[in-house]
Amino acid sequence: MTRLRGLRVAALTALLATACASPRPFTDDLENKPWDALKTLLPPYPKDDRLIPFSVDPSRPFAFFVDRDSINVVQDGPLRYTLVARSSSGASNVSYEAIRCETLERRTYAFGRTDGTWAQARNPQWLPIDRSQPNQQMTLANDFLCTAPPLRTADEAVQALTRRNSPSWLR
User: Is the peptide bond before 149 cis (omega within 30 degrees of 0)?
Assistant: First the structure.
């Protein structure tokens, strides 16, 4: 009986150690690239007819969209996409971003300019996704992109984003 309890304790300890282990290291193939090289890897500027709406929080004064053509699922790495945040007056903020589902982190690579070109993000570091209030990255991660089992293709990500009906205030 004591030996059986010892085996159970050892198995539980091993299970907890595995669960608490740090995530697997990964290499972001866009990390540490000079801006000139990175610019050539960025997706084309988003077109309105290719945007997929998603709801963040009805109290927020923006409508949020993901450009379906920009989605890139990297195996064992980040999921990249172009995000568009549009105000009720029609002004848009465009960014090319990534989410690491394993660690719930986000990174912004570039921001869109009004002329349809990209500008380098000033602080392109991996940052924790803020869970204290609803935001676009948390919503994308929790509701669409960080699924179990993990998304493997851009088509699966598009399906996840389009699966839900858009909220009435976006129609």
Answer: yes
